[in-house]
Amino acid sequence: MFRQGFFDPINQIIRTHGRVCGYYIGRRPIVVLADPDMIRQVMVKGFSTFPNRLNNNFAPKPMSDCLLMLRDEQWRRVRGILTPSFSSAKMREMVPLINTATDVLMNNLNAHADSGQAFDFHRCSGCFTMDVIASVAFGTQLDSQSNPDDPFVHNGQKFFGFTFFKPIILISMMFPFLLTLLRRVLPQRRDTVSTFFTQSIRGIIRQRDEQPPEQRRRDFLQLMLDARSGGESVSLEDFDVVDRTHAHSDTQPDPVRDPSSPSRPPPPPTAAQKKKRWLTEDEVVGQAFIFLLAGYETSSNTISFACYLLATHPECQRRVQLEVDGFFHRHDSLDYTNVQELKYLDMVFCEALRLYPPGFRYGRTVDEDCEISGQLFPKGATIEFSIGFLHYDPEHWPDPQRFIPERFTAEAKANRHPFVYLPFGAGPRSCVGIRLAQLEVKMALVNVLHRFNLVACSETQVPLELKSDVTLGPKTGIFLKITKRDLNRC
Ligand code: HEM
């Protein structure tokens, strides 16, 4: 599976052995769950028994301080402090930064349109996402496509070139007893890259602390620095950003994050929270890595997949373009609120994530012996949710291989089991960055489709070959052509 990828082989295991089955990675047993009710039990109802992901002993500091990796009380404290930084109100502040990165993307795409040649769209979306991360998390303005030698771009590429997920981490999962030995012989290269990012962030923190507050750049790093000591903090029941994002219209004020909302003020912090509402500098630095670890491949793959699907389904592309053109007759520019008006675009976004969920494998560890639907789960077992299987399950998705955005009308969503569609997870441990992901991906798509037509050509691979090691992504890029639209006629 490590060579072939996990997506198809796991679906095959489930088809053969049923919705609760398993496999071994070396000596570690993995229990695969593809039953939506049992998944709901693990993710939400019985959360206190399954609060953690698989222990990743290989992540070096400061990555090991990143929310994705944290466990138990430390996770709870950091998530409580961090969740408000991803609120609707805070996302509004990110719009100008994402807009700047979108302008750079448009310039780069213009050059491809002028050339008339097919090009790797996935590479462009990767550069765009890297520019957004550099800007919102590392306080650095970039054009990574035009400046591949910039130290940030260079180190960013190295970071992904040998991520600690790759062979060495897989060996550690197979043979945990080799961990200590492997740590000693690990190449130092990885440390050089994390040192680069760590020093950059520490440098910026020093600078910001010396600046008067009104001169500080408003980015995610600053939100975290503001939250460092005694900022807002929310409790476990408010951690489920995914559920909130789906349940509330995003044009409404967010009741948790906008404390001014009369409908539901944030609950008063408990004594334990009051005592511990701080982030150490190491933790601040660790959280900046969220964007690289959790936000880079996921967002750039989503943009690429959506564009691939629109290029290969021109009738849907035309419908998005009509919606976007109508939008620009009503508004001069995009912002966090008005982007929610684009209902068909949202359906395309959801359907792209159903067919190609970048985070298709994630799970929890079992904290104490328990039983779910008559099945025993021993303490220490690892549970893996099979998102790939659920998203293609013909019981819930008729004709599952087809791209049909209308599966995501409000009515169709209301008639479906909510736990058969989990691109961002669910429950308190779900994706904290969902609002940023939606904003960033939709801002890119709106601008691309307003200015260009995406055209499938002889270089476009249909069906698309996928890689499915850590995230689900295109195996060899996504090759398309683009042509400019006549904006006077839109
Ligand atoms: C389309 C883009 C994205 C997708 C599909 C995605 C998907 C996911 C998934 C499936 C999980 C695991 C959920 C679970 O275990 O229940 C997750 C967790 C997480 N995501 Fe995202 N994500 C995306 C973008 C982002 C962005 C942009 C950020 C932040 C910058 C982010 C930050 C995180 C963090 C920090 C976690 C771990 C949360 C915790 O353990 O408390 N993600 N994401």
The secondary-structure element order is HEEHHHEHHHHHHHHHHHEEEEHHHEEEE
Distance between the termini: 48 Å
Small molecules bound in the structure, each named once: protoporphyrin IX containing FE
Shape: globular
- SS summary, helix count: 18
Q: Which homologous superfamily in CATH is the superfamily?
A: Cytochrome P450
Supply the number of structural domains: 1
Strand content range: 5-15%
- Structural class of the helix and strand makeup? alpha+beta
Explain how this protein is built:
With 490 residues, the chain is α+β, with helices and mostly antiparallel strands. It has one domain (7-489): Cytochrome p450 (Orthogonal Bundle). It is 48% helix and 9% strand. The protein has helices spanning 7-17, 36-45, 72-82, 88-115, 121-138, 151-161, 167-174, 179-185, 189-210, 220-227, 241-247, 271-276, 281-312, 314-330, 343-355, 387-391, 410-414, 434-451; strands at residues 20-25, 28-33, 119-120, 361-365, 370-372, 375-377, 382-386, 452-455, 466-468, 472-474, 479-484. The strands form 4 sheets. It has a 4-stranded mixed beta sheet with strand order 1-2-7-4. It has a 3-stranded antiparallel beta sheet with strand order 3-11-8. Strands 5-6 form a two-stranded antiparallel ribbon. It is globular, with a radius of gyration of 22 Å. The termini are far apart. Protoporphyrin IX containing FE binds next to helix 13 and helix 18. Heme binds at residue 431. Its EC number is 4.2.1.152, 5.3.99.5. The chain crosses the membrane at residues 159-182. This is Thromboxane-A synthase. It is found in: Endoplasmic reticulum membrane.
